[in-house]
Predict the structure.
Amino acid sequence: MKPFTTLTSTPAPMKVMNVDTDMIIPKQFLKTIKRTGLGTALFAEMRYNEDGTENPDFVLNKPAYRKSEILIAGDNFGCGSSREHAPWALLDFGIRCVISTSFADIFYNNSFKNGILPITVSPQDLEKLFDDADRGSNATLTIDLEKQEITGPDGGTIRFEIDPFRKHCLLNGLDDIGLTLEKGASIDAYEAKLKQREWA
């Protein structure tokens, strides 16, 4: 998993509440178990017209936000059914951070395990971030995970809270497999002891 330390990007404003996982990645794209290739299907039903052409009114189709790595969204982001494909699709598109006032628990947990930083802020701070994002490519945000700060285009900062263990995992690029491999020496020693007992 790619470590998350600092990130600077033009944020994309998605002023929609209750964005569920089916909106993030519609069910017809869940046939794959690969983590790559889902970026083109991200928000497919909002992003594309029925004939497959791009909807020019959708935020990620606008020139200023096509390469956004930060998504600012309304309350209760990632609700609905449990599907790990949702963070996979966001990450494959290039989104590394989602900022909202609240997240659904399963989506929140899955994001950390896939290298995406979900940040919870107050409604007042979210409105300020939406204002910054509305300025398009003229404004960028910087996320500093070590300092737990969001720095806006005018130099103002917003502090955010994060669980220390999750912070450690993101900073070091550790998913569940990576955490297990960190204990490799202890696992090898334990297995060696078991073998000695079997031959005793």
Summary: The longest strand covers residues 6-9. Residues 99 and 168 are 19 Å apart (CA to CA). The mean pLDDT is 91. Helices lie at 21-24, 44-47, 85-93, 105-113, 123-133, 164-172, 176-182, 184-199.
